[in-house]
Amino acid sequence: MSEKTEQPTPKKQRDAREKGQVAYSKDFTKAMLTVSLLGYLVMRGDVITEQMQSLMLAPAAFLHLPFREALAGIYGQMSTDAMALLAPFILIVIIVGMASDIMQVGLVLAFEAAKPSGDKINPATNLKNIFSKRNLVEFIKSLIKVIVLGVVVMHIVKSSLPGLVTLPSAGVSSVGIASGILLKALLIPIGFVFFLIAGADLLWQRYSHNKELMMSKDEVDREYKEMEGDQDVKQHRKSLHRELLEEDAVERSQSASVLVTNPTHFAIALYYVQDETPLPLILAKGEDQLAQRMIDAARRKGVPIMRNVPLARALWAEGSVDQYIPSTQIAPVAEVIRVVLNMRNEGRL
Q1: How many domains does the chain have?
Q2: Which stretches does the entry tag as region Disordered (predicted)?
């Protein structure tokens, strides 16, 4: 097997993306979610505490009612309070999760990745994946993350321990305040560690993904041939296309009203019939050998051939096939048409 030394081509990257194979860091998404949720807890700590108190004390408001009515009232009240408490967290998870995915890989619709595959339930394949290099890296990375975060959290909690010890004697209301202070102390260090690990993981995932897509020179050549076709076939197609265009130009020259020439370098076939075409129409254009073939074909069909070097050059440069003559050439073309009509009226054509 050839050594894979070539960078992946855009097609290889595009095909991998369509299969859902992208450089994606789960740690980056986790970091975004963790920091966002901790930030929300810090900013809305007082409100969340009140909502939790309301949720826990909700049954007390229905003690005076009969059991069935109280049960229905408690269920309705607690459902409302629970939704008010949980809805922001759910929205944060959805919005931040989608945003982090888009930031990493953009919008990817990989339907092929969702198709059922025998490899996904194959025990041999799954066992092989368990001991793969990727999973080993993931294990080491998770171990480092747990150790670093554990050290950071332990250091912060240890420094806050004197205050935490006195909480039981400070009353229930102080628990929320102390929790908010502790969360604020944890937010920046944990956020920094999370994003440091996530940034390193994202770089690793992109490097690993690019390495997996590396190609051998044979694969690059094969892909190029598949996309562009074999050079001989491609040249043959171009040659056939050119011949078809030339044959069409020669055929059109035979039905032209006049052929304006250079005399040998350029040939422009013009078509004009009074009351049928508002302006002379360019039927065909030819250069060098094609121009000579157009001249020969027009001569065989008795099409007038008018030598006009400036006009032929101008029509070649400015005019387009199947289009009316440029407005800048109306006067000289009209003079050529007038000469042709006079020659026809005099019986010289």
Answers
A1: 2
A2: 1-21
